[in-house]
Fold each of these.
Amino acid sequence: MKKTVLLVAVMMILYDVSAIIPDREYIRYPYKMSLIYKDLDVKTKDGYDIKTWFFPAQNSYGQNDSSKI
């Protein structure tokens, strides 16, 4: 029982660490998923430049009716 609890605790810690350290390269791009988006550059109050994507409301990925996009 103690080994199971310890294993679950270690797995949770490792999962949290991977959430904090993002990938350096994108593996999914909006254009590859046929999403409507706009590139935005945001400057934070403390001087950091962040590249972001804005996604307006649209059909979900995989829906057959693309006439509304």
Amino acid sequence: MFSGIVEEMGTVEAILHPTGLTALFVRARKVVGQAKPGDSICVSGVCLTVTGIHRHVLAFDVVQETLNKTTLGRLKSGAKVNLERALKVNGRVNGHFVTGHIDGVGQIKKKIWGKNYTQLHVCLSKRLLPYIVPKGSVCLDGVSLTVGRVGRDHFVIHLIPFTKKVTTLESKKEGDWVNIETDILAKYILNRAKG
């Protein structure tokens, strides 16, 4: 379980493709310090297990299903990723509860720069739209955000200067893809109402 509060941006060091999986290597400064093999780390919204650590590089094994359902399959060496360690049970939750299980990907339809914010319009599948509500929570690439407005096929979020500085979202361009995890509470409420 995570909170969607990014601890640092890491850099993809290498991507290898042994039979049956992909080995992802990410250079980090902060999260690597207390990490150990078996720990869960949120990598741009995706919960991955640390399989090894060498100096400042974390190793992860990624199965094909994860590559197909998330943006991790589009990563290249040198790419920046958002990193967050798992929550401590006795810690504060500053964002919202994030599982690291991606519901789908969305595409940035429009990016608008304001004086002290950046607005992103994110298109997503109609299957996920019922879980996105104005002033509700959403997680994009591992970042806990508040939904501003919801349209017929997209939603709008506003990035404050701090979020732009400490996450990869500011570098996203129109047409880029992001991992989306909808609010876990919305999922339970809507699924309960259907049943």
Amino acid sequence: MSTTIWMNHWFSTAVNIIDLLRADSLDIHVIGTNENEYSVIKNSCDEWYQEPALKDDDYVDYCLEFCKAHKVQVFIPRRGMVKISEQKHRFEEVGVKVMIEDYSIMKLLNNKEEAYRYYNENRIGPVPDYYLVTTSAQFMDAYNKLLTKYSQVCFKFARDEGGKSFRLIDNQRKGYAALFKKQNTRITLEDVMRALDERDSFAPIMIMPFLPDEEISVDCLNTEQGLIALPRVKGYEKYETLRYDKEIIDLCKTFQEKAGLNWPYNIQFKYLNGIPYFLEVNTRMSGGVHMSCFASGVNIPQIAVKKILGETIEWENSYETKIIAQVLNPVTID
């Protein structure tokens, strides 16, 4: 019997997650929704609906009614994850299995400052030096302190998704040399202070050193066989490398032992002077999970769906280093 799965407001690379769910002829019926009528995942879904522009409790109410109306059996949320986790019991009461962690750990991990404190207190692994600031005076003080130890400084809001607010302070972004730099995440200190001075206080910002060395994105899922941890080394080239460094795998295992997550998640590390620092844990599948799955042969989305349905899929991983790239193809959207 077909299993009805709903994915709400996922990013465009979720087309690959849907392909992984359908692998091996798994009998599923996929419903997709998005505020954007022309989201690219529309073509990959069996049913498609445009979402209303709702927030917080109103959005959770919409999700619950949607599940009832469309007989959703498995809900894989991306939008509104923390609020949905807070009210997960309402979905479970009507027979909907929600692929999301409990509210306490969701709330913690989706606040960068609380998460960093948690990593420190539980000795999970190193985090960068950081300051939490809410005024422009605090920001300048923290910036000056960091510059005594580090050559570059960056910042982002403590509550952020996908690094949208991330900025690297670059006081050389003007002039001829700046023409050779990508500018979308760079900002001068002068421009930062001008923006911050518009407010007496603002939502908490984390300011920290910029870590310029390798970035590792690890796609994870805990199973009866043990932890799946697929580390992708990301860079500025058009490829990534699946590479199983023992130090990274051990850090992932330590995190899992402490946090006890049940569903797919992604850990971001960044190196500085040979030390891998925790940047964040995303409590959902990453945009590049399909690359990890393709290179390793381990189908995280399908294993997770089987798990939430009470079934087990055995998995094998050769742990071979692989170079991964993806080719983009044009599509028309129905």
